[in-house]
Amino acid sequence: MNITPEKYDHWYHTSRGRWISDREFGLLRKLLNPTPGAGLLDVGCGTGHFTRRFHQAGLAVTGLDPDPAMLAYAREQSKGIDYFVGTAERLPFDDKQFDYGSAITSLCFVDNPVTALQELWRVSQHGVVLGLLNRHSLLYRQKAGRGAYAGARWDNRADVINWLQQAGITSADTRFRSTIFFPGGGPTARVMERLIPGTILWGGFLAVHLTRQHHN
Q1: Where in this chain does the record put each Methyltransferase type domain (predicted)?
Q2: Pairing of strands 172-179, 205-212
Q3: What DSSP string describes 13-47?
Q4: Is a pLDDT exceeding 80 seen at residue 216?
Q5: 0.90 surpassed by pTM
Q6: Residue 127, pLDDT score
Q7: What are the extents of the domains in the chain?
Q8: Does domain 5-211 have CATH number 3.40.50.150?
């Protein structure tokens, strides 16, 4: 992605970017429903936008990204968050070191999402939440291969089920939800967005929540 950290993060402060971010984070937080103070690893954190939002929500957050420039910007924007250089396919952390793991539109740029998912599952004690670009959406028709979406992979529910099977993750309760059905983000779109239930998986942002089943 050929874009400066400043320009990338600025988009979240535009009217449309703020609305989309609020919709996405609200859905992820609702799915995860984390315990205050719990530890979360945000993989592919980029400039740390969602990392900071999880931190503001009361979690002890760690960010990881392969791009040192993105991480340098992220460190400038926040205190109390540890950031590490690393890749999703080989996380430099112990098994179940974190309560939760997240990867928000970062697996879309990973060559091997199965390995990345295995790693996220390995380091997370309770569960994982993913934010993916949904191939079954209006956003895909409008933006695939263009701008910040150039080089991104677009996935759907069937792809995720296939990843889980290949990764050998069988002990997970899995929930799917989506949002951003009308990516233009205008006043009418925002009203209509609230009328569509997240269980309809046609939104541009596909959220996946994996919960580990604990056995006594």
Answers
A1: 41-127
A2: antiparallel
A3: GSHHHHHHHHHHHHHHHHHH-PPTT-EEEEET-TT
A4: no
A5: yes
A6: 95
A7: 5-211
A8: yes
